[in-house]
Amino acid sequence: xxxxxxxxxxxxxxxxxxxxxxxxxxxxxxxxxxxxxxxxxxxxxxxxxxxxxxxxxxxxxxxxxxxxxxxxxxxxxxxxxxxxxxxxxxxxxxxxxxxxxxxxxxxxxxxxxxxxxxxxxxxxxxxxxxxxxxxxxxxxxxxxxxxxxxxxxxxxxxxxxxxxxxxxxxxxxxxxxxxxxxxxxxxxxxxxxxxxxxxxxxxxxxxxxxxxxxxxxxxxxxxxxxxxxxxxxxxxxxxxxxxxxxxxxxxxxxxxxxxxxxxxxxxxxxxxxxxxxxxxxxxxxxxxxxxxxxxxxxxxxxxxxxxxxxxxxxxxxxxxxxxxxxxxxxxxxxxxxxxxxxxxxxxxxxxxxxxxxxxxxxxxxxxxxxxxxxxxxxxxxxxxxxxxxxxxxxxxxxxxxxxxxxxxxxxxxxxxxxxxxxxxxxxxxxxxxxxxxxxxxxxxxxxxxxxxxxxxxxxxxxxxxxxxxxxxxxxxxxxxxxxxxxxxxxxxxxxxxxxxxxxxxxxxxxxxxxxxxxxxxxxxxxxxxxxxxxxxxxxxxxxxxxxxxxxxxxxxxxxxxxxxxxxxxxxxxxxxxxxxxxxxxxxxxxxxxxxxxxxxxxxxxxxxxxxx
Length: 612
Ligand SMILES: Nc1ncnc2c1ncn2[C@@H]1O[C@H](COP(=O)(O)OP(=O)(O)OP(=O)(O)O)[C@@H](O)[C@H]1O
What we know:
Layout: H1 3-9, H2 20-23, H3 35-38, E1 47-48, H4 52-63, H5 96-120, H6 142-149, E2 151-154, H7 166-170, H8 176-184, H9 192-202, E3 207-210, H10 217-229, E4 240-243, H11 247-260, E5 268-271, H12 277-283, E6 296-299, H13 301-309, E7 320-324, H14 326-329, H15 335-344, E8 351-356, H16 361-368, E9 375-379, E10 389-397, H17 399-411, E11 419-422, H18 426-436, E12 443-446, H19 452-464, E13 469-472, E14 487-490, H20 497-504, E15 514-521, H21 528-537, H22 544-547, H23 554-562, H24 574-578, H25 580-601
Parallel strand pairs: 3-8, 3-9, 4-6, 4-7, 5-6, 7-8, 10-15, 11-13, 11-14, 12-13, 14-15
Antiparallel strand pairs: 1-10, 2-9
């Protein structure tokens, strides 16, 4: 299988003919997809943290591949990661190594399971070996089902989880067309979070939900929401509100909601900083006869708060409020806005649902202050990275070492597109872009200073495969679903453990495998332990000396989160390799091409500073 087929399997399209020269940059690009996981050790001295999972995946590749992709591309899904049931239909032959691996994992997880039982109030003595994944859950099979699906439940009278989509109709009386749309869009089997969280929301209970990145949380809140709305309404405005921290994520939620509700004319309004003002003015027109009614409002917090303050929106009919990336929305910076939104949603029967891959204890405490008799559904270990990503830490010495490491990776053929490259600031994103654009990569950059149209253009280009390496800031760290991303590079060390988990979660989505490399210098060493802990928890090997490191204190963690460390600038050293004059000539060519593009399409080089 070549790289193009691999990418197409992930939803990105690559024009092989058009990029044939560029392909050479990637050396081993025609390798099997499985080689991504084994090529990990090539990069350089000082790198660590190859996943245990890699061994299992490689074994599976020869001993029992599980094929799950629609286009025939092989999808190797290690046990325990098969959120999407893609391997369920394939009979697998299990290697001795795999069996051994599984047994040791079982032993290691026993303690965690016991803790899970304690939380769920379940007696482990009713344990059974295995139950059919599709049979409806009963009180007798609950314990085994929860263990099999790594679900932890907490709360009073938490509704039993749902084992299969068929229960939507038989148990919850969900309209059949919703099931039709699930099948149509390839959401064939519910994921663990969908099994655990949907019954809670369908029963109209408040919910706090945590599940790994890329495990299907969006659908877990959208389907119950649409079920409760039943049909478009011309009587009430805004019956449901979904808040997301970025407009890219808001747009993505909108796209998924459109698919899920296909064939029904739900009126959905996306309201972001720069979104079409007419949408909201139509909704708030003083002439009631002209007022347009929306069923669902998907919004970023700031834009909604402005609309509330200007009395452009009336949220008194809202029955369902979803905070996606809830921990971010309850952090300083967004907290005040989230508070205002909560206050404006004044309906006495308002139901609240909070979702995230990370839910720090402080956030949970805060959530409890405004939720009523809530249920808590957690998949796997709380605040952990998705296990489908093989994580590596690479010591690069100094800031300059990062560029060397990156270029070595390119030369070794380890930079398999599409790649997301995270840096800590807009300034650094721009600098790195100007550096890499001369390396012949199809590279672009996205951050909050780029106008909406440009941001949309970059995302489409990345999805199409026209952009191979996308340099980004924290803006893209959460929620964004690029299925085909092969590699995430933390060029700059993340400022919090949550940031690390969300950033690397842009790869390894929907049960696919992914790879994440985090560069660190000695300046970052004090914060290494936080990442090491996440790596160990998700089954990655880390050297003993790292395990023994002291973690940063609370004060220091707070300091890092509040302010990115000062870093030496990313120097333009392209001049040394291709010659300064040549570099300038190419720079001008790129600038001219961008100017032409701006004239033609409204896209171009970003200007200004600040933001994510
Ligand atoms: N039941 C399902 N079967 C197959 N694919 C699914 C299913 N549910 C969701 N997906 C797909 O999985 C991908 C990831 O889902 P989603 O974006 O909701 O993840 P998430 O858990 O919200 O991740 P993040 O924490 O990064 O926001 C999406 O492409 C979605 O369409």
